[in-house]
Design brief:
Number of strands of chain B: 19
Radius of gyration of chain B: 21 Å
CATH superfamily of chain A: Aconitase, domain 4
Largest interface: A-B, 64 and 79 residues
Helix content of chain B: 25-40%
Strand order of the largest sheet of chain B: 5-4-3-6-7
Largest sheet of chain A: 7 strands, mixed
CATH superfamily of the largest domain in chain B: Aconitase, domain 3
Oligomer: heterodimer
CATH class of the largest domain in chain B: Alpha Beta
CATH topology of the largest domain in chain B: Aconitase, domain 3
Radius of gyration of chain A: 20 Å
Distance between the termini of chain B: 51 Å
Low-confidence stretches of chain A: none
Number of helices of chain B: 15
Structural class of chain B: alpha/beta
CATH class of chain A: Alpha Beta
Structural class of chain A: alpha/beta
Chain lengths: 212, 469
C-alpha cells in the first residue's frame, strides 16, 4: 500500500448528504475482476447524461455539465469535500478504488459509513472527520475562492486553510501508523501467527462444533 | 461486570490487542462472486493460502440470471458477468472451501439466505462476508458484519480482522405487533426514527417482547436492515426459536456435540444490568405498515401517511436532500402514499425472500390478479431450497395464477446486476433494502415495503394498507 503523509491539494465540493456507494460506483461496473480502472466511472450516473456500461469508450459519452466534478475548476482536485454519512450502503471496495483512481487522496466530511471509512485506509486514502460547522465553513470558502487548496498533515492530524486557519482531526492510532508507513496489514497480522494458532486451538477445544 | 451480547461475542474472539485495535478471530467466511476475485488474486500474487479453508462457504448470487437456466452458463448473455461467475468456480477449485454452491446448484442462492439455511451460521460465531448485508446473520446471536475486498483477503490469509470495538446500542421494541405488521415494517420504523446515520459506530442489539416474538426469518429481516440504520452489525439474543431453527440443518452440530453447543448458546444474551451507550425504544402497537417515499431508507412513512413537506425537514442539509428526492422520485410533497401508482413489483432479496416472506405475499395474492398498470411483478426466492419448499406448498401456482412471474433464486432486482431491472422513470414496490438513486436500474424509483405490502400493491396497482385488502 502507498503511504500517505501530507498533501496540499485542490478541493472539490460535493454538496450532498448520504452519498451512497451505489452512486460512487454503480453496480454494472462491479462485474470486473480487477482492482483498477474504476475512476472513469466514478459517480457515473451523475457525471454522464447517457447510460454507462463496462467497456464503453467514456471519452465519447455525453458529459453532464451540471455535475460539479465536471467543472473545469475542479479538474485536478485531490480532496473531496462532502456531507454527513458519506459512503453509506454497499460494502463495495470498488467505491474507494474509483475515488482513488479518479484522483482523490483525501475526503473531508462530518461523518462516514463505517465500512466505507475502513475501506479507504486499506487503499492509502485518508477520510477526515470535521464537525458539520467546519464543513459548512469549508464549503463556503471553496465556493468563494477559485483554486481553493487545503494542506493536510496526517502526522500532525491537521487541515489548514489558505488563510492559515488550522483544524485538528482524530484518527485511530493503528490506522494512522499503517497509512503513514504504507504498511500491508496482512503482513502485520502474520507477525502474530503464533497467537492466532494458540487462540484457534483454545477455541476449538471450547467449541469443537465450529471445526466440523 | 455485566456484559452486553456484543461484549460477549467480541471479547470471546480477541486474539491480540494493541494501540486500541483488536485482532479478532473469524469463524465463518461467506464468499460470493462480486467482492472476492480481487482478494483471491491478492493471495495468488503474494503466494498465500487460506488460513482455514473449512471456514469458507461460497455461492454465486449477485450476477446470476433468474431465468434461462435451461441454457446453463451459456444462458448468461453478459460475458463480463459470466466471467465473474466462472472465476469464482475456478478460485474455489484452486483454494478450496467447506462448501460451494455454484450457479444452478439445488442449494445455490443469496449468500445470506443460504448460510443460515445450511446451518453454516451458528450462535456465538463471528461471520464476515464482502457484503454489507452480512448483518443478517446476527439474528442467530452471532457477530456478523460486512467487509471490503481488502479485508476479504485479510481474513482468507490470517483468519482474523483488525477491529476497533463499536459502541453498543439497544433497540427495544416492546408489545405486540399488529398481525399485518412484519419485521420489515419494524426495521423501517426504526430507521425512520434513528436515520440512516444513526447507527454509525454502533453494533445494535434488537430486544424486547416484540423481537422475541419474531420468527428467525423475521429476525434475519431485522438484522439485515441494521446496516441501513448505519450499524455494521445487528443482533438478537439466542432463545428457543433460534435453537429450534438450527436443529437438524446440514452443518449444525451433530448429536454428540448438540447439548454442549446449546448450553453455550444459551449464554449468548446481554446480562441483566448491562450498559448500552444508547437505547432506542419503540412501542410495537404504534408501528403501522411502512412505505419509503424517497431515495434513502430513512425517508419512510406509514401507509396512511403522505410524502412529507419541506417544513418538516430538520435542517438545510435535509431540506436539500428531500428536494432532490422529490425530483428523482417524481413526487410532490403531501401526496398521500396510497395514491402512488406503481409499474413493477419485486418480491425477493436477502431482506425478504425466505419461505415465510413468500407465504405472506402469496396469502395476499391468492385468487387475485395483478393490476393492469403493473407491467411486471417478479417473485425471486432466496435460494433453490426456498424455491423447492414454496413449490411443494403450491405457492408458485398461487403467484403464477395471479400474474406474478416465478423465477430462479438470486439477488436479482435488489441491485439489478443481472438482467432484472427498472427502466428510467419506472416505479417499483420492492421488498429489498435500498431505495438509493439508480439502485434497481438507472432512473428507477424504488419504494421499500414488506412482502405482503408489495403483493397488495401489485393487486391494487398502487400502495394500499394490507390490513384493508
Amino acid at each position: 500500500m502507498q503511504a500517505f503523509t501530507q498533501l496540499n491539494g485542490l478541493v472539490a465540493p460535493l454538496d450532498r448528504a448520504n452519498v451512497d456507494t451505489d452512486a460512487i460506483i454503480p453496480k454494472q461496473f462491479l462485474k470486473s475482476i480487477k482492482r483498477s480502472g474504476f475512476g472513469v466511472n466514478a459517480f457515473d450516473e451523475w457525471r454522464y447524461l447517457d447510460h454507462g456500461e463496462p467497456g464503453m469508450d467514456n471519452s465519447k459519452r455525453q458529459i453532464n455539465p451540471d455535475f460539479v466534478l465536471n467543472q473545469a475548476r475542479y479538474k485536478s482536485a485531490s480532496i473531496l469535500l462532502t456531507r454527513e454519512n458519506f459512503g453509506c450502503g454497499s460494502s463495495r471496495e470498488h467505491a474507494p478504488w474509483a475515488l482513488e483512481d479518479f484522483g482523490f487522496k483525501v475526503i473531508i466530511a462530518s461523518s462516514y459509513a463505517d465500512i466505507f471509512y475502513n475501506n479507504c485506509f486499506k487503499n492509502g486514502m485518508l477520510p477526515i472527520v470535521l464537525s458539520a460547522d467546519i464543513v459548512d465553513t469549508l464549503f463556503n470558502q471553496v465556493a468563494a475562492t477559485p483554486n481553493y487548496k487545503l494542506q493536510v498533515d496526517l502526522a500532525a492530524q491537521t487541515v489548514s486553510t489558505p488563510s492559515g486557519e488550522t483544524f485538528s482531526f482524530s484518527v485511530d492510532a493503528f490506522r494512522k501508523h499503517c497509512l503513514l508507513n504504507g504498511l500491508d496489514d496482512i503482513g502485520l497480522t502474520m507477525q502474530h501467527q503464533d497467537k492466532i494458532k494458540a487462540f484457534e486451538s483454545r477455541h476449538q477445544q471450547a467449541q469443537p462444533w465450529l471445526y466440523n | 461486570m455485566a456484559k452486553t451480547l456484543y461484549d460477549k461475542l467480541f471479547d470471546s474472539h480477541v486474539v491480540h490487542e494493541e494501540n486500541g485495535a483488536a485482532l479478532i478471530y473469524i469463524d465463518r467466511h461467506l464468499v460470493h462472486e462480486v467482492t472476492s476475485p480481487q482478494a483471491f488474486e491478492g493471495l495468488r500474487l503474494a503466494n498465500r493460502k487460506p488460513w482455514r479453508v473449512g471456514s469458507i462457504v461460497a455461492t454465486a448470487d449477485h450476477n446470476t440470471p433468474t431465468n434461462g437456466w435451461d441454457k446453463g452458463l451459456a444462458g448468461i448473455a453478459d460475458p463480463v458477468a459470466r466471467l465473474q461467475i466462472e472465476t469464482l468456480t475456478e478460485n474455489i477449485a484452486e483454494f478450496g472451501a467447506k462448501a460451494y454452491f455454484p450457479f444452478m446448484d439445488a442449494r445455490q442462492g443469496i449468500v445470506h439466505v443460504v448460510g443460515p439455511e445450511q446451518g453454516a451460521t451458528l450462535p456465538g460465531m463471528t461471520v464476515v462476508c464482502g457484503d454489507s448485508h452480512t448483518s443478517t446473520h446476527g439474528a442467530f446471536g452471532a457477530l456478523a458484519h460486512g467487509i471490503g475486498t481488502s479485508e476479504v483477503e485479510h481474513v482468507m490469509a490470517t483468519q482474523c480482522l483488525v477491529q476497533k470495538k463499536s459502541k453498543a446500542m439497544q433497540v427495544l421494541v416492546e408489545g405486540q405487533l399488529n398481525p399485518t405488521v412484519t419485521a420489515k415494517d419494524v426495521a423501517l420504523a426504526i430507521i425512520g426514527k434513528t436515520g440512516t446515520a444513526g447507527g454509525n459506530g454502533y453494533a445494535i442489539e434488537f430486544a424486547g417482547s416484540a423481537i422475541r416474538g419474531l420468527s428467525m426469518e423475521g429476525r434475519m429481516t431485522l438484522c439485515n436492515m441494521a446496516i441501513e440504520a448505519g450499524a455494521r452489525a445487528g443482533m438478537v439474543a439466542v432463545d428457543d426459536t433460534t435453537i429450534k431453527y438450527i436443529k437438524g440443518r446440514p452443518y449444525a452440530p451433530k448429536a454428540d456435540q448438540w447439548d454442549a453447543a446449546v448450553a453455550y448458546w444459551r449464554s449468548l444474551q446481554s446480562d441483566t444490568g448491562a450498559q448500552f451507550d444508547l437505547v432506542v425504544r419503540l412501542q410495537a402497537e404504534d408501528i403501522k405498515p411502512q412505505v419509503t417515499w424517497g431515495t434513502s431508507p430513512e425517508m419512510v412513512v406509514a401507509i396512511d401517511g403522505r410524502v412529507p413537506s419541506l417544513d418538516l425537514a430538520k435542517n438545510a442539509v435535509q431540506k436539500a436532500d428531500w428536494e432532490r428526492a422529490y425530483a428523482y422520485m417524481g413526487l410532490q410533497p403531501n401526496t398521500p402514499i396510497k395514491e402512488i401508482r406503481i409499474d413493477k413489483v419485486f418480491i425477493g432479496s436477502c431482506t425478504n425472500s425466505r419461505i415465510e416472506d413468500l407465504r405472506a405475499a402469496a396469502a395476499v395474492a391468492k385468487g387475485k390478479r395483478v393490476a393492469a398498470n403493473v407491467k411486471l411483478a417478479l417473485v425471486v426466492p432466496g435460494s433453490g431450497l426456498v424455491k423447492a419448499q414454496a413449490e411443494q406448498e403450491g405457492l408458485d401456482k398461487v403467484f403464477s395464477e395471479a400474474g406474478f412471474e416465478w423465477r430462479q433464486p438470486g439477488c436479482s432486482m435488489c441491485l439489478a446486476m443481472n438482467a432484472d431491472r427498472l427502466e428510467v422513470g419506472e416505479r417499483c414496490a420492492s421488498t429489498s433494502n435500498r431505495n438509493f438513486e439508480g439502485r434497481q436500474g438507472q432512473g428507477g424509483r424504488t419504494h421499500l415495503v414488506s412482502p405482503a405490502m408489495a403483493a397488495a400493491a401489485a393487486i391494487a396497482g398502487h400502495f394500499v394498507d394490507v390490513s384493508q385488502v
